[in-house]
Design brief:
alpha+beta, eight-stranded antiparallel beta sheet, globular
């Protein structure tokens, strides 16, 4: 399939950064509104190439391209078809998960996978092959994508189906195979827009892992918040939260009148300037103590809204500003089942280092999906936010990377902003296949990003 290139786009030079706000770079920002304009944008990327970008929720530099073009796909935002009988939606890549929820929930359907924010685009969800609280049951986002249209470096638009190499290279490929234009997605049926939530405390990491291992299969969604400042006998103490979509019978009478209502709450935005140093070991330690103590020892069946259960931070616009001018690093890794000692050592190292992280979550991954660079694999995954200005942080995280790689694990590319390129191949065994396909599909290196340059995606290091 091909498209005409009759439209012109007025680009602007702007500073672009990831959600962690750690390494801004200047690029030509182009906002196509039609497929023809998207083709023109790709053909006019210039010598520094281009990279597609959605709503900017990749934490690191995956959607940045210093000195080149950044193709903002949020102007491609149409929902074309909703098959409410079959539970399939066809939409543009610039449509956000938030918008899908607004449209689909009243029809009794929910997105099959959602991360901790609903402000990601469908294209970004495919490019990062996002995961959520239900990976142990439902896998990652790509498992539910039936097909997509991909604009490649030569200006051609391909229909890409599941089970093909191009599908597997693109899902998790961080935008480096082309621009996703549309996608067909299979949805999850729901009868209400509320969640039935169970909460319990775990006294330490071993207690938490035992609870998850024994009962995780009974719940569609599960996640544990960990206190990474707790030490000694309390190391890894946690609050474990599990959820299911509530049935109409569980709703109070008032909610039954409109059981599929979707009305996310919203608080005032964080101020544009927050002084660095606000999140210290002392302030985060106080928060962690309060958060752990206020959680019930055991509570079942609490009704929560979808936004409260899945996306609590979305209620505070620009919450990333609370880390101050230096920004923050989100570090997420996975190690396989059987590598619990590695997880214990890393949690102990984080606790001993006194990393002031109040956002730290542990989950279990299920079967891996076929994406060559897809992050999830069966095992334990820990994600945490750390202020970027913490002294010695780079060397400390390098040490964790080495331990993760030695255990056969990997770090998430959608979260990464500082991984060494020599570890990439050990973490992602299909990297050479990905490089070979890119060389064939994009010999001029049209699609490139700051992450791709930093990690040397063009050739083996």
């Amino acid at each position: 399939m091909s498209a005409e290139t009759t439209s012109e786009i007025a680009p602007e030079i702007t500073s672009v950064t990831g959600w962690g706000r750690t390494a801004p770079s200047a690029a030509r920002l182009v906002r196509p509104r039609t497929y023809a304009e998207a083709v023109a944008a790709v053909r006019d990327c210039g010598p520094r190439g281009g990279i597609p970008r959605g709503l900017g929720r990749a934490y690191g530099d995956a959607a940045q391209n210093a000195g080149g073009s950044v193709i903002d796909v949020t102007g491609l935002d149409r929902i074309h078809v909703v098959d409410a009988g079959a539970g399939v939606v066809l939409c543009d890549a610039g449509v956000s998960l938030h918008r899908l929820m607004q449209v689909l929930l009243p029809l009794g359907w929910f997105v099959p996978v959602t991360p901790g924010t609903r402000f990601v685009t469908v294209g970004g969800a495919i490019g990062a092959d996002i995961h959520g609280k239900n990976h142990h049951v439902s896998g990652s986002f790509a498992r539910h994508v039936l097909s997509f249209e991909l604009l490649t470096a030569d200006g051609t638009i391909h229909t890409v189906d599941q089970g093909t190499d191009l599908f597997d290279a693109t899902t998790g490929g961080m935008g480096l195979t082309g621009v996703v234009l549309t996608a067909r997605i299979r949805l999850h049926p729901v009868r209400t827009s509320l969640m039935s939530v169970d909460t319990e405390r775990a006294r330490d990491l071993d207690d938490l892992m035992a609870r998850l291992t024994a009962t995780d299969h009974r719940h569609r969604y599960s996640v544990a918040w960990i206190d990474l400042l707790a030490r000694g006998a309390a190391t890894g103490r946690a609050v474990l939260t599990r959820g299911e979509h509530a049935t109409p019978a569980a709703l109070p009478a008032r909610a039954r009148r409109d059981p599929l209502a979707f009305r996310p709450s919203r608080l005032p935005a964080a101020p544009p300037f927050v002084p660095s140093g606000l999140l210290t070991r002392t302030t985060v330690g106080l928060f962690n103590e309060l958060w752990y103590r206020r959680a019930p020892r055991a509570r079942t069946g609490e009704l929560q809204s979808i936004s409260a259960f899945f996306h609590p931070l979305d209620g505070v616009p620009h919450w990333n500003r609370v880390y101050g001018r230096d920004g923050f690093v989100q570090y997420q890794f996975v190690v396989g089942y059987g590598q619990e000692d590695t997880l214990r050592r890393i949690v102990q190292r984080l606790a001993a280092r006194r990393c002031p992280s109040f956002l730290a979550v542990l989950k279990r991954f299920g079967d891996a999906d076929p994406g060559w660079l897809s992050f999830p694999r069966p095992g334990w995954t820990l994600a945490l936010d750390i202020p970027a200005g913490l002294p010695g942080l780079g060397a400390f995280l390098d040490g964790l990377d080495e331990e993760v790689a030695a255990a056969g694990g990997r770090v998430s590319l959608a979260k990464d902003s500082r991984l060494r390129p020599d570890l990439l191949g050990a973490m992602y065994p299909r990297l050479d296949d990905f490089r070979a396909l890119r060389a064939e599909l994009d010999p001029r290196g049209v699609f490139v990003s700051d992450l791709a340059r930093r990690l040397n995606f063009q050739e083996s290091p």
